[in-house]
Amino acid sequence: MSASGDRRAELAAGLADTERRIVDACASAGRSRDEITLVVVTKTYPASDVDILAELGVVDVGENRHPEAGDKAHDVEASLRWHFLGGLQTNKAGAVARYADLVHSVDRVKLVNSLSRGAEAAGRTLTCLVQVDFDATDPGRAGVVPDAIGPVADAIADAPGLVLGGLMTVAPLGDDPRPHFDHLVRLSGELRRDHPGATIVSAGMSGDLEAAVAAGATHLRVGRSVLGERASTR
Ligand SMILES: *Cc1c(COP(=O)(O)O)cnc(C)c1O
């Protein structure tokens, strides 16, 4: 088999394994598979992998760095939804707004304003999630503390070119993820009292997607379980 045929077989197997995990988790939780969007996180992997994933039926892909994300979005011909998941400097927000469809990592009003200007300039609509951080022990982590969701969410909802999609979190390393995911789902319920359209709950990665499905996540961001271990640690 050719090298690209080998890679296609690997990705098909990774996708099938991941899909089986999601279906099993839905069955255990009494949820329907249609409630869940799988975002395949392709960071560090080449655009050729994204091409193969698109052929295999993947619609949503995630990236965490600019310009790597923009280069891939440019190189891949298939029409996909591009999810931006990473820390974002305000001076790069305009560029990201040109190719991203969803930004999961919005954690300050200044970034909201930059994304809004970028979306307007590009004539695009960008769905934004507020990233929530539950790790009080590490102030360097991305995300807002639960009490600070309101102002960022309101700013997104009021910003031209932006739509408030909901909430996102990354479970603190080493913790049992389940209480954090349950907490995020409770916060989502509170957010929807003011913003009924903000239904997205983005939680769960390769290591903890079952816990996220059980808690009520709508979007899973899965990299390694589909593509294999990354060479770098991010
Ligand atoms: C890399 C990354 C993921 C995917 O992680 P895996 O362990 O490869 O599934 C999910 N979310 C964010 C924010 C990431 O940076």
UniProtKB/TrEMBL annotation:
N6-(pyridoxal phosphate)lysine found at: 43
This protein's record includes keyword Thylakoid: no
Alanine racemase N-terminal domain location: 37-229
A GO molecular-function descriptor: pyridoxal phosphate binding
Necessary cofactors: pyridoxal 5'-phosphate
Pfam families: Ala_racemase_N
Highest taxon in the source lineage: Bacteria
Stored InterPro entries: Ala_racemase_N (IPR001608), PLP-binding_barrel (IPR029066), PyrdxlP_homeostasis (IPR011078)
Keyword Manganese: no
Key words, A-Z: Pyridoxal phosphate
Family to which this protein belongs: Belongs to the pyridoxal phosphate-binding protein YggS/PROSC family.
Function: Pyridoxal 5'-phosphate (PLP)-binding protein, which is involved in PLP homeostasis.
HAMAP family linked to this entry: PLP_homeostasis (MF_02087)
Record-linked NCBIfam families: YggS family pyridoxal phosphate-dependent enzyme
UniProt name for this protein: Pyridoxal phosphate homeostasis protein
Organism: Aeromicrobium endophyticum
Organism taxonomic ancestry: Bacteria, Bacillati, Actinomycetota, Actinomycetes, Propionibacteriales
